[in-house]
Amino acid sequence: MAGNAIDQTRRMLSLVTYLRERPGARVAEVARAFGISEDELIADLDVLPLCGTSFRGGDLLDIDTDGERIWWHNPDDVAEPLRLAADEATALLVAARAVATLPGLRESDREALLRATAKLEAAAGEVAGASSRLSVTFESEGGVFADVDRAISERRRLWLRYYSPARDEVTEREVDPIRLFAVGHTYMEAWCRLSEARRTFRLDRVVEIKLLDEASDPPPIELRDLSDPSTGLVQTGAEDPEVVVEVGPGGRWVAEYYPHDSAEELPDGALRITLRAPDPGSLRRLALRLGRDGRIVAPQELADSARDAARQALAAYGE
């Protein structure tokens, strides 16, 4: 499937150039030139109008076909030199600087990334200065990410000293790593030899890590769909702290995506949602995302913390 997607992407990039030089090209001739069926060509043409030079949805390719010929109505507009908007340049610079600090990145890749970042900074001008006030940090300090990544690639077992905030204790265990993933934080999914069960470990809570000589041999298990609340990362329990969130009509989606104990209807389409969270502090990001569409009601210290985070974000945006 990945190979087919890559082949299609390469083909469509060539197709753009081909069609620009041949207005009104016949479907049969284009399909023959690219060595594909007419149905495959039509499928490509269905995708191309969704592509363009801006992620905002403007400047899209205006290409259509009547089944016999292919017409491109705005080739000159799309051919204009591509210029990054201020927010696009800022996002690229912040991301590039963050990735350059990632543990385990090959030195040649890091150097290439830094060279590309320098060129982007020169082209961005004043925007580069603004982006320097923003930063993203990865929580896999101390080479933890690199050790886990190496253990997965070499199929080796890991020894951990791991802090569990729920029990407020550090435990030692050996694990067979399965995969790395990021959902807000960076996590490792592994088979834990201490509990003889699948466990998820947050990398910034790994106190100490060692790569062992023993081969990693996790039992065959089906990977969980992390987007599904019933099987995903967040598994709540009755002992977890209770959080109350009130959302307006624009925030009712929270009740669909977050496991909760109750959802009480309020006037004007609002909801009061009661849920439990192993780490209530993680819900500050939810409050920031909701903006005017919701607020944390309880516990009070979490509500105050969310308000402070919102004020700091607004202040930074104003600068």
What does this structure look like?
The chain is of the alpha+beta class and 319 residues long. Helices cover 38% and strands 24% of the residues. The chain is built from eleven helices and twelve strands. It has a five-stranded antiparallel sheet with strand order 7-6-5-4-8, covered by helices on one side. Strands 10-11-9-12 form a four-stranded antiparallel sheet.
Give a brief description.
The protein is α+β, with helices and mostly antiparallel strands.
Task: Note the overall shape.
Answer: extended
Strand order of the largest sheet: 7-6-5-4-8
Structural class: alpha+beta
Calculate the terminal CA-CA distance, rounded to whole Å.
46 Å
Query: The biggest beta sheet, please?
Result: 5 strands, antiparallel
How big a fraction of the residues is strand? 15-25%
Give the number of helices: 11
How would you spell out the order of helices and strands?
A: HEHHEEHHHHHEEEEEEHEEHEH
Unreliable segments (pLDDT under 50, ≥5 consecutive)?
Answer: none
Label this structure with key terms.
24% strand, 319 residues, 11 helices, single chain, 4-stranded antiparallel β-sheet, extended, 5-stranded antiparallel β-sheet, alpha+beta
Topology of helices and strands:
Layout: H1 2-21, E1 25-26, H2 27-34, H3 38-47, E2 63-65, E3 69-72, H4 75-78, H5 86-100, H6 107-124, H7 126-131, H8 144-154, E4 156-164, E5 169-183, E6 185-192, E7 197-202, E8 206-215, E9 242-247, H9 254-257, E10 262-265, E11 271-276, H10 284-290, E12 294-298, H11 300-318
Antiparallel strand pairs: 1-3, 2-3, 4-5, 4-8, 5-6, 6-7, 9-11, 9-12, 10-11
